[in-house]
Amino acid sequence: MGLKAETRDRLKTVSTATLATALYKRGLRSQFIQDVKPLNPALPVMVGEAFTLRYMPAREDLNPITVFQNPEHPQRKAVEICPAGAVLVMDSRKDARAASAGSILISRLMMRGVAGVVTDGGFRDAAEIARLAIPAFHSRPSAPTNLTLHQAIDINVPIGCGDAPVFPGDVVVGDGDGVMVIPAGIADEIADEAVEMTAFEDFVTEQVLAGRSIRGLYPATDPQTKVDFEAWRKQTGR
Amino acid sequence: MGLKAETRDRLKTVSTATLATALYKRGLRSQFIQDVKPLNPALPVMVGEAFTLRYMPAREDLNPITVFQNPEHPQRKAVEICPAGAVLVMDSRKDARAASAGSILISRLMMRGVAGVVTDGGFRDAAEIARLAIPAFHSRPSAPTNLTLHQAIDINVPIGCGDAPVFPGDVVVGDGDGVMVIPAGIADEIADEAVEMTAFEDFVTEQVLAGRSIRGLYPATDPQTKVDFEAWRKQTGR
Amino acid sequence: MGLKAETRDRLKTVSTATLATALYKRGLRSQFIQDVKPLNPALPVMVGEAFTLRYMPAREDLNPITVFQNPEHPQRKAVEICPAGAVLVMDSRKDARAASAGSILISRLMMRGVAGVVTDGGFRDAAEIARLAIPAFHSRPSAPTNLTLHQAIDINVPIGCGDAPVFPGDVVVGDGDGVMVIPAGIADEIADEAVEMTAFEDFVTEQVLAGRSIRGLYPATDPQTKVDFEAWRKQTGR
Amino acid sequence: MGLKAETRDRLKTVSTATLATALYKRGLRSQFIQDVKPLNPALPVMVGEAFTLRYMPAREDLNPITVFQNPEHPQRKAVEICPAGAVLVMDSRKDARAASAGSILISRLMMRGVAGVVTDGGFRDAAEIARLAIPAFHSRPSAPTNLTLHQAIDINVPIGCGDAPVFPGDVVVGDGDGVMVIPAGIADEIADEAVEMTAFEDFVTEQVLAGRSIRGLYPATDPQTKVDFEAWRKQTGR
Amino acid sequence: MGLKAETRDRLKTVSTATLATALYKRGLRSQFIQDVKPLNPALPVMVGEAFTLRYMPAREDLNPITVFQNPEHPQRKAVEICPAGAVLVMDSRKDARAASAGSILISRLMMRGVAGVVTDGGFRDAAEIARLAIPAFHSRPSAPTNLTLHQAIDINVPIGCGDAPVFPGDVVVGDGDGVMVIPAGIADEIADEAVEMTAFEDFVTEQVLAGRSIRGLYPATDPQTKVDFEAWRKQTGR
Amino acid sequence: MGLKAETRDRLKTVSTATLATALYKRGLRSQFIQDVKPLNPALPVMVGEAFTLRYMPAREDLNPITVFQNPEHPQRKAVEICPAGAVLVMDSRKDARAASAGSILISRLMMRGVAGVVTDGGFRDAAEIARLAIPAFHSRPSAPTNLTLHQAIDINVPIGCGDAPVFPGDVVVGDGDGVMVIPAGIADEIADEAVEMTAFEDFVTEQVLAGRSIRGLYPATDPQTKVDFEAWRKQTGR
Fold this sequence. Notes:
6 copies of one chain form a homohexamer.
Chain A: H1 5-11, H2 16-25, E1 32-33, E2 37-38, E3 46-57, H3 74-81, E4 87-91, E5 99-101, H4 103-111, E6 116-119, E7 122-123, H5 126-130, E8 136-138, E9 150-155, E10 159-161, E11 164-166, E12 171-175, E13 178-182, H6 187-209, H7 223-236
Parallel strand pairs in A: 3-4, 4-6, 5-7, 6-8
Antiparallel strand pairs in A: 1-13, 2-8, 3-9, 3-12, 10-11, 12-13
C-alpha cells in the first residue's frame, strides 16, 4: 500500500486538467481544490499522498502567542511528523484573512523532504515561500498569524479543502491550474489513464498547431486520427 | 460537571445579545454563530450543551443513498446518541446548497429530549420543522439530501459553526437574534452576569419607554440611575 | 407529450425534498434552484412545466423606460404568452439588485392561469405579490425596475436559474424549501416514486413521533419496518 | 427647505418600487439601499429626511465596553440628537457580523419621534424591535455588540448604505421592498410624479385583476387606456 | 459593415481605461467585463468583434464525456466557426469552478486567426495558454472539464460576461486592466475619441513625470495647458 | 511628533507578517488590510503615515466627467496635498468594479515624494502603475473611471480599508503579503520589537535551512536556542 514510486513518477508527467477529466469519467466531479494557486508556478508538478491538518475557528482565550511553546501544538507537530514525500493539506475553511503557516514552517517541511503544502486559506511570508524549492498552494498571501483566526485541532483526519474532500492517503497533484485530489484506491489506474491521455493530447496539440481542425481529431471520431496517432507514437516513442 | 440545571434555567431568561456583551467584556468576540436563524421564532430560548457533528465535502462514490443502511452512519448515529438536554450543532461548512438534515431526524431529536439543533447550512422540510416543538436554527431551507454535498464524518469533536468555535460541552443559547456559544468553563458566571444585566436592561427599557433619555441612564453614569434601579429591583422583586 | 394531469396531481402531494432524493438516486444533483423562497409560504405546492425568460445585463442606451411601449418587449410578451398551467422561470443571473418583475405582471400571470413564477433575482411589490393566489419564488424583494440591470432577451430557451439547468418543458415544483426542476422525460416516473416515498416518510414520521428509533426504520433495514408499513398502508388506504 | 409636510404625506401613499421608476427616468439607478428588509413589515411606509451615522471598523484598544460612558460617543449622541421626523441611516459597511444598535436605542429613537432607522448591517434584539412602532430596516439580526466590529465615528456626513449614496437631508422611504433614497432637491417633484404613477398603477391593477391584458394597458399605448383611466379617476376621485 | 480595419488599428493603440471614460461620457457605465485578467499580460492589446458562446448549468445526464463526439457540440463548433479577427466571448455565468475551455481549443482558435478569447469563468491548461500568441482573459485557472458545470447551449446570441452586456458584433478590447465592450454602432467614434484622449494623456503623463502639478493640467482647465499640448502635438507629430 | 526617521528606517527592514504578530501580542487582530496586493512586488517595503481619502457610492447627477474641472475635487486635491513621505490610503468600500485612481494621479504622487498608495478597490492603468517607482496596493485592476461608482467625499478622516481601521497618522507598512496598519502611538515600540523578532526569525530560518527541527527552536523553548542565537548575533553583528 501507499503511493507507488512509478505512479508518482507518472503523475509528475501529467496535468491536473487531464486528471480532472479522468476522474470525471468515473463520476468524480468534486476533486478539484477550488481557488488555490501555486506560489511559485515554475516548480515541477507536485505529487504526494495527503497528510492533513484541520483548523477550526480560533477562540481568543485558547490562542495566546504562548501556545506554540507546547511541542504538541498540532500545527507545529504536523510540520515535524508529516512524512517525507507526502503533501501537507490544510483545511483552513477557505478563510485567508489570517495565515495558515509561514516561511519558517514551510522551510522545515522542505528540509524534511515533504513533497508540497496546500491550504485553502493563505500563507504569510509569501514572497519568501515562493523562492523555496517546495511547491506551495494557497488562495492569497495573508500576514496575520494563524492564531488570529485559526486553531489547529486535528492531524490526519478527513477534511475539506477548497470544497474538495481530502482523505489521508489520497494522492494530491498540483500544477499551474491548481490541485487535484485522487482517491487513494484508484491512483494507479488514474495515473495510467492520464499518461495515455497526455500522449494523445500532446499529439493533438502538435496537429492543431500544424493547422489541423479539431473536427474528427479531438475527440478522435475520424478513424484517420487513430492511424495518425499510432504513427506518431511510434515515431516519438511514446 | 456538565451544565447545571440552575444555569440552564437562568440562561433561558436572557438574550443572546446580552450574552454577547458579557462575553465581549472577557475578550471573546467570535462566539456568535453567524447567519443562522430560528425556523420557529415563537419557541422559547434554546439552551443546552453542544454535541457536535462534523460534515466534510461529499465524494460521489462514498455517498450512494444506501449509506444510510449502515446504522453507524455518523449522521444517523448522532441523532440517536445526542444526549437529552444537549444541542446538536452541525458544522456544514456554511454551505446550504444541500440539507444538513430533515424533519424526520429532527422529529427524532425532539422525541429524544434533545434541546435544539443548529447547522450553518440548511434544513430540508423546513416548513414541517418549523411546526415542531424543538428549536432549530439554520441559514436557509435546502431541499437536496445531505449526501449531495455533505458527508458526516465525526461525532462530538471540536468544530466551526458559522465561523464560531464550538467545543463539545460548550453551552449553546439561541433566540431570535441567532445562537451564542459560551465556553463551558465560564457558563455559570456568564449566566449570573447576564441575569443581572437583563434586570438592568429591562429597567432601562421601561425608563426609555416612559420617555427618559439614555444619557446617564445607559450606561448608568448618572448616580441617580443606580438609585432608581435599586428602587425598581425592590419594587419588581428582581 | 406535455405534463400529464395525473402527474401534476401527484406532484402536488409531494415535497421538493422527496423529489430531490428521487433525482439524486438517478445521479441528478443540480436540479435545486438555489436560494429562492416563496413569497407566500401558505399557498399549495406549485407544479407546472417550465416556460422560460432569459435576462442579460442591461445596456443603458437600450433600456429607456419607453421600451415597454413595444408590445414585443420580451418581458411583457412572455407574460402574455406563457401557457396556462406552466411556470414562468426567469434567468436573472442570480442578481437581485434590480427586480425581475412586479405585482402587475404577476397579477396578469395569475389571471391567465399560469401555475407560478420563479426568478433567481428579486420581485418588486413583494408584499402585494405575497397576497396573490399564485405561487411566486425569488431571492429577496427588490424595488428597482428591471431595466436598471436586466434586459429581457430570449423567450423559452434553455436557461440557468439559481445554478440549476432549466429546459422548456421541464417540470417545476415549488414548496417551502424552494424549487426543484424535474427533467421532462422522467417526470412521470419521478412523480410515481415520490408518491411512494412520501407514503413511507409519512409512516416513518408517525412512528418517530410515537417514540420509535430511526434505527431499522429509516431506512427500513429492519424487516419488521416493512411489515408495519404494509399494515399502515392498508389501514390508511395509501 | 427641509421636507415639506405635504411631500411627506404623499410619499406615505406610494411604494419604493414606484419611486425607483421615477428616479430611473431621471438617470438615478443607485438609490436603492440593497439587501435590507423591515423588521416589522406591518408598519406603514417610513418617510423622513436622512440623518446619518458612519461606522468604521473597530480597533480593539479603542472600543472597551466603557466607551459608552462618554455621553459624546457618536452612536449614543446620534440617538439623542437625530431630529424628530428624520430617519437615522447607518453606514455599517454592509457588515452584519456585529450589531449596529439594539432595542434600547431604537426604543429611544421611537420615543423621540424619529421616523425610522436603517442600517446596512444588523440589529440585535431583533424580535423586540419588531414589536416597536418605529420602522426599522436591516440586513439580518446580529447579537454581538457593535463594539465588536463597528466604531461610530461621524454624525450626519454623506455615507454609503447598502451601496446607495445617502446625503444628510435626502428623503428616505421604506416599505416591504426595502428603502429608497430620494435626493433632497427633487423630493417634491418625485412625490408628485409617484402619486400620479400610483393612481395609474392602481387602475391598471384593477383592470388586470378584472381580466384585461397588459397589452396597450401597461404602458398605456392604447388610446382607450387613457380614456378609461380618466373615467376611473373621476369615478374614484383620484 | 463590421469592424473597419482602421478602427481596429486605432483601438490597438489605446487603453481600456481610456475607452471606459469615453463610454462613461455617453452614459455607458456597464461595459467593463468584471474580474477577468489576461493570461499573458505581455501580449499586445486585443481587439475584435464579439462572437459569443453561451453556457448554461450542466445537467449530469446530458453531459457524458462522449458529447464531444458530436461535431455539432456548440463548444467545439464555436471554436471552428468563430471568424478570424473576432473575439470569442463566453458567458460562463461568472463560475470558474469548472473550465470554459483548455489549451487545445484555444490553440485552434489562434491557428484560425481568431483575435482573442474571453470567459468570465476559468481556463484549464492556463500555463500553456499563457505561452500562446493569442490574448486570453479569464477569472482564474480551473482544471475540471467544462462538462462538470457548464453546458454550451447557444452560439452568437447576446450574453452577459462578467456582468457586462455583450452583443454579437460589439467591439471587444482587452489589455492589462481587463476587457471593455464597445457597442458596435459607436466603435468608430469611440476609437477616434480615445486616440485623441490618449494623445492628451501621454502629454499629461510626460508633464507630470517632469514635475508639473495636475492642477490646471488634468483636466486642462488652465488655458496654458492647451497651448502646451498643441505645441507637444506638433513636436511629436501626434 | 509624527513618524520618526529611525522608526521608518527600522520598519523598512521588517515584514508585515512580523508586524502582525507584534500587534497580535497587544490584542490588535484587525490591522491587516484584507485582500490587497502590490502592483509591483519587486519594490522595497512601503512605509509611511496614513493620509486618507474616503469614497462614497457615486450618484449619477453629481458625477459628470466635468467634476474634475473643480480644483477642489477631493480626489484631485488629495493627490496634491498628501504629504511627502505619507501613504495615501483610500476607502473604496472594497469595491473594485470601478477604479480608485489611475497612472497619472499615481505618477503625480510619486513625483511629490509620497511613500505609497493603497486602495481596497482597484487601480486602472495597472500595467503602467506597476512600472512606477512608488509602491501601490490594490485588490485588482479596474478600467472604469472612479466616477462610475465612487465619489471622493472626505480627506484625512478615519476610514476603513479592507476591513482594517485606518486613522490619519497611523503607520502603514506594505510588502508582498499586503499592508499592515500600526496605530500611531505604538509605532516606535512595534518597530523596535519587530526588528528584534526579525533578527531571531532570520537566525531560525538559517538553522532550519541547515536541517534543524523547529522543536525547541521556534519558539525558543530549548535554552540552547537562546545560547545559539546570542552567538549568532555576535557573529553577524545584529
